[in-house]
Specification:
By secondary structure, this protein is an alpha+beta fold. It has seven helices and seven strands. It is globular.
């Protein structure tokens, strides 16, 4: 439904504004850090450094930091327009309070306390958005299965930083949200597919990387798109292993 007609509109608008303000703050901080590290890198030429020296090691570290800053800046620029597409409320068994988790295409944490502002859609806990219905729910993480109660699944249509539509759902995508998605241009549909992935597609994306996987479908059914998202998922979860 139109966002301003939803009962939670004031709450969600306030949260969106908070998130966008933090994105702007993170952009400014990242740009400043990138400039500082860039100056340090520019002052050293690796051709004239001993590869075993601390100076050479520092240069390599700073070069990696520059690369990471470029990626973060691209993600933050995207988040300026559409920081997240969903929210889930999950009360983990044994914990005193429920968590409100906003799911987007990147992870963003608050510097001062590492509190999650945006959860990456590829993170284990985000699987509940795609797989779980309201009520008893859980997800697998490196420490085992986490169980609890899922009390809210909410989808958002956000464009250019403006909250346009809000949908409370039980399954991944309701008809109104899907119609809105299908009515978008082909380019935007491809960009926003993470918000409309169905449970069956999600299981393909998150399938065990050590087991053979065969995906069959007619031409145009989305096999390649799901394969690309599976690659993104595997890089996120296993890229450092």
């Amino acid at each position: 439904m139109p966002a301003n007609q939803h009962p939670a509109y004031p709450e969600e608008l306030a949260h969106l504004n908070y998130t966008l303000n933090y994105v702007e703050k993170s952009l400014a901080t990242t740009i400043s850090r990138k400039k500082q590290v860039g100056r340090e890198v520019a002052q050293r030429d690796p051709r004239y450094l001993d590869r075993n020296s601390q100076e050479f090691i520092d240069l390599m570290v700073n070069t990696q930091l520059l690369s990471g800053a470029d990626l973060k800046l691209r993600n933050l620029e995207t988040a300026r327009q559409k920081p997240y597409f969903a929210r889930i409320d999950f009360h983990e068994d044994g914990k005193p309070e429920k968590e409100q988790l906003y799911i987007g295409k990147m992870c963003l944490t608050r510097d001062e306390d590492q509190r999650l502002i945006i959860v990456d859609w590829r993170a284990p806990i985000a699987n509940m958005y795609y797989e779980s219905r309201l009520g008893e729910a859980g997800y697998q993480c490196p420490d085992g299965e986490i169980k609890g109660q899922l009390s809210l699944k909410r989808q958002f249509s956000i464009d250019k930083g403006q909250l346009e539509e809000i949908f409370d759902i039980d399954i991944t995508t309701n008809d109104q949200f899907l119609q809105s998605y299908l009515g978008a241009s082909a380019d935007n549909r491809l960009k926003d597919i993470v918000s409309t992935i169905q449970a069956e597609q999600n299981r393909v994306i998150r399938a065990d990387m050590n087991r053979p996987l065969i995906v069959q479908g007619v031409a145009g059914s989305g096999k390649t798109t799901i394969a690309l998202h599976r690659i993104a998922y595997l890089i996120y979860n296993y890229g450092q292993s």
